[in-house]
Design goal:
Helix content is 77%, strand content 2%. The chain is mainly α and 189 residues long. It has one domain (2-188). The relative contact order is 0.15.
Amino acid sequence: MFEHVSVFLSFVYAMGLTHLLESFTNLLNARERVKWSGLHLAWMLAVSLSLFVNWFGLFRLHDVTSWPLHVVLVLFAQGLAQYFACSFVSVKVEEDVLVEMPALYKHQRELFLAAGILISFFGIVRVWTGSAVAPTTPGAVLTIGTLINAGGIVTQLVAMFARSRVVQWAAVTAQLAILVGFLVRYWSL
């Protein structure tokens, strides 16, 4: 069952990554017509890193022996939220049209942050219910996973509702630090 679930989720993650890569490529190709937003680019990076973290986390699932429906549904929901975060943060570039990334950030922010909050929420559900967590997973990973996901929810809520760009920058910086910290810690276990 692991192969079935992991292959499906890998396809979903690949589609999300395709949105991000195509968006970035199109932005670079149209760079003369782009009004850049560092904040939007930072969130594109954070969503990309989140996707990598979730894809990489599939590896630990190879030891899971029981795959009841609720486990598969939680993983499926988290994968869909990841796809939507990638889709909503991506920038659509049209031919010969000025790309206003600051305006797009303002317009799309709630959508991709809400999807990010759902990713973290389902991450907490997975940890607390033991859904799709290998029985050999160390307790430290579970505790860190809970803190990472809770921190992700907090940073994304702050970014969603804060009007100050300084606070929004602090939120995305914290989100990136949380994700990088998790990868470093996860890799060392």
